[in-house]
Design a protein that fits this description.
- The protein is mostly helical.
- The longest helix is centred in the C-terminal third of the chain and has 26 residues.
- Helix 1 packs antiparallel against helix 3 and helix 2 runs antiparallel to helix 5.
Amino acid sequence: MVATNPFALVFVLPSLHAWLWIPHLRDRSPLLRAAVFGFGLAGPLLLLRMLAAAAGTGLATPWYLAELLSVGYVPLPVLVIVLAWAAAGAQLVALMSGRYAPYPSAYERELGPIRSTIRRAVLASRARTSASDEAKRALGG
């Protein structure tokens, strides 16, 4: 980020500093962890607020930013940096909510609704086929 715009660190550093504390707060209340995460969003929210006030876009500010990116006013590396920042934030939300876990092994996974419906249909078809084969054998066929 420093290579693209050193002044942009003003908006990202609050996130980095605040989010470094989240793993240390894992034994604390979820409300405190959410408050620390929200404090980390202060920089980007301040940027959006300043842009909305300067451009007069209001709630259309994200759309305005997308337009600036599409016409090339905002360079592509900035988008990549913002996406990496958002991915780090999403990982922290998953960690804070207790949804961060390794993928279960094949033996630990349950079948989903589609696979279980297909399994029932295949087993029913096999049962009908074996029942008709047994009936044919019983009749001498």
